[in-house]
Amino acid sequence: MRSAILNLEESKIREVANAGIGRSDVLAFWFGESDEVTPDFIRQAAIDSLNHGETFYAHNMGLPYLREGLARAMTLKHPQHDAGGGVHADRVAVTSGGVNALMLAVQALVDPGDEVVAVTPVWPNLTAQALIMGGTLRTVSLKPKDGAWTLDLDALLAAITPTTKLLIINAPNNPTGWTLEPDEQRAILAHCRKTGTWILADEVYENLYYAPSEHACAPSFLDQSTAEDRLVVVHSFSKSYLMTGWRLGWLIMPPAMTGSMGKLIEFNTSCAPVFVQRAGIAALERADEVTPRVVAHLKACRDALVPELQALHGLELAMPKGGMYAFFKLPVAGDSLAIAKRLVQEAGLGLAPGNAFAPEANGWLRWCFASKDIARLHLGVERLKGWLEKNPA
Amino acid sequence: MRSAILNLEESKIREVANAGIGRSDVLAFWFGESDEVTPDFIRQAAIDSLNHGETFYAHNMGLPYLREGLARAMTLKHPQHDAGGGVHADRVAVTSGGVNALMLAVQALVDPGDEVVAVTPVWPNLTAQALIMGGTLRTVSLKPKDGAWTLDLDALLAAITPTTKLLIINAPNNPTGWTLEPDEQRAILAHCRKTGTWILADEVYENLYYAPSEHACAPSFLDQSTAEDRLVVVHSFSKSYLMTGWRLGWLIMPPAMTGSMGKLIEFNTSCAPVFVQRAGIAALERADEVTPRVVAHLKACRDALVPELQALHGLELAMPKGGMYAFFKLPVAGDSLAIAKRLVQEAGLGLAPGNAFAPEANGWLRWCFASKDIARLHLGVERLKGWLEKNPA
Which site among A281, A353, B209, B313 is 20 to 30 Å from B384 CA-CA? Predict the structure, then answer.
């Protein structure tokens, strides 16, 4: 087997979850997933499709009707894109989940030995994909400041040189909740145009944004870019439509990449199932019935959890603007992974360890606040508080 | 973008299909897919799962119950495997289709620059995946003899040296219908043990086998191998269960690969949807109600089509032992792709061009005989006959 694969880190999040196996009393906030079932009408669209016998291969790029719907939806969110021209359907590919979209983009762009710059802490899948393709990874770390992880823009731009093939950036960010500002996106894009660097923007959390905004979404690279920019933007149905288990995502790419993307989809998964795509169409057509409610509830979760955590003595945490995570530093020295395992065993509290996302985030913990029942969050804080009292700094 | 990706060949099959766009009168036999909908009870299992709210992330490797069912099913087919120990569930990974399983195996095994040997003609996805991963491809061609493509075993063994990282072999073969014999599998395995070469065996057509056999399937590398052999065997629900559009497959690997495979699945698609896996469980549990009927019908299709084609003057074709394709050479000179397009336009007949599968198969055509209505096959032959009369050799 390849050493590049053997050397890929095992998921530290899963290691913590494994520590909870056999314990039914653990309050689990470790995975990035709501505990709410997909809405009925979305499931019904898939059921109808199955009943109609839609069980055959589909076009590699997705159902034309879904691609058009996604293009329209993205254009409504980002009317400034391409000098107001918006997103055209031939630049949209439907994928088997957001992670699959990211992998396809990395396959298209990263040759063995290519330099890839990634902003960390970040969901480990993003950096693993570049390593699978034989890329050389260089990371630029956000810096914690009063509990908020912030970007040193100059340091990032200095790290991106003409030898940098790809910049991988996820904002709103998992795990930190950090978001990019439009002027930062403009500066990064202008710099990458000069260096010839591609940008892979994981914007799957764009709708999970709690600051005031014109189109109810986080600032996007799409707002600043043209169709021809070396930019791939990745999205997913998982978070905004409560569809994690469906494995349905999409990406937006320059028109010249479309032909190659069709080939890559053929060689990776061939297509997303038609009945899953029908569910995506239903979700998109009735997005107003789902996403605003989901986002409002997540905001309520955030606003319930974060102040309670901030009130714990010595804990570092700023209110996140986007995403569905509270990322905080405990006033306890030690390895995040070890602490997360102890929290499972000693307090029945399941959190993700910061060092799952970057070595520099050791000491931090990620709490997914996507909880249908907000009381679960309160109960979790009680457990953390009790544990901290028994384990003072 | 990577030149390795830009250089990947576009599908010549799709090019032919595109030539038929807008024509409703084309009899299409170009894709490798039955025209029969997935059986009701399989669809119902997915519907029940959706109704029960199974819309969350699943384990990377698949539902334990499905993995156990697959291990049992493979052991029943291949009781000799691992000296009679059979296949254990921890060696099974559930994947997002057979093509996804193949891609995962290639990601695990092929480093940039690694030499990969493939037996051709073959489904182009198999060789494309190695190129995506930066492998160096070397092909060993089957040789046509009286209309049957046959293996020169000595030539294949000579091509596999200690520098060969991976042998890719698909039998029963798409497109030729060629199958491997047990003594050939033994010889290849013994040779690869000496050279340290991995074998990636695409055996998705194993149940579509029409020669007498003890376990109603084609000879498999599993029959000859142990758990520890450098062997990955890939399977799919697509053909045996009429589930092409579901994108559900599996692979069997040595136990030492299981941990890495879990990581690769996480970084590629994360998991197959639970409701799709429930359909797979239903298919497996009631396989006797589907697969024997599908295979008997495919045999009837083959036995109807092949003699009629053989009766056409000058056409070269042997009866295939396995698979769902008639692969034949027309008594007409010229490029397969051009001929396939002319057949669409001039005869309303949709076939796949041989040079989609290997340059040496130029002049040949692939006819997928998986047709619910056997009369369609007769009508197709009539159209071919009429076209040949107008276009004599």
Answer: B209
Given a contact cutoff of 8 angstroms between Cβ atoms, the answer to whether A147 and A296 are in contact is no
| Residue A381 near residue A375, CB atoms below 8 Å | no
| A23: nearest Cα among A380, A365, A348 | A348
**Of the candidates A292, A172, A260, A157, which has an alpha carbon nearest to the alpha carbon of residue A221?**
A172
Contact A132 B243 (CB under 8 A): no
Check if B174 contacts A (Cβ < 8 Å): no
pLDDT band at A17 (very low <50, low <70, confident <90, very high): confident
Note whether B108 contacts A: Cβ–Cβ < 8 A.
yes
Report if residue A393 sits inside a domain.
no
Grouping H, G, I as helix, E, B as strand and the rest as coil, residue A109 is helix
In a domain, B45, yes or no: no
Q: At residue B337, does pLDDT exceed 80?
A: yes
**Residue A373 belongs to a domain:** yes
Q: pLDDT band for position A10 (50/70/90)?
A: confident
pLDDT of B18 > 90? The answer is no
Q: Which residues are CB-neighbours of B178 under 8 A, at least 6 positions away? A: B142, B148, B149, B150, B151, B171, B172, B320, B321
Phi, psi of A90 (to 5 degrees): -75, -5
Interface ipTM: 0.97
* CATH code, A371: 3.90.1150.10
For the entire predicted model, the pTM comes to 0.97
Q: How many residues does chain A have?
A: 393
**Domain assignment of residue A164, yes or no:** yes
Q: Which residues of A touch B8 (CB under 8 A)?
A: 260, 263, 267
pLDDT in tens, B272-308: 999 999 999 999 999 999 999 999 999 999 999 999 9
Using CA atoms, how far apart are residues B94 and B88, in angstroms rounded to an integer?
A: 13
Residues ≥6 apart with Cβ < 8 Å to B269: A96, A97, A99, A100, A247, A269, B95, B96, B100
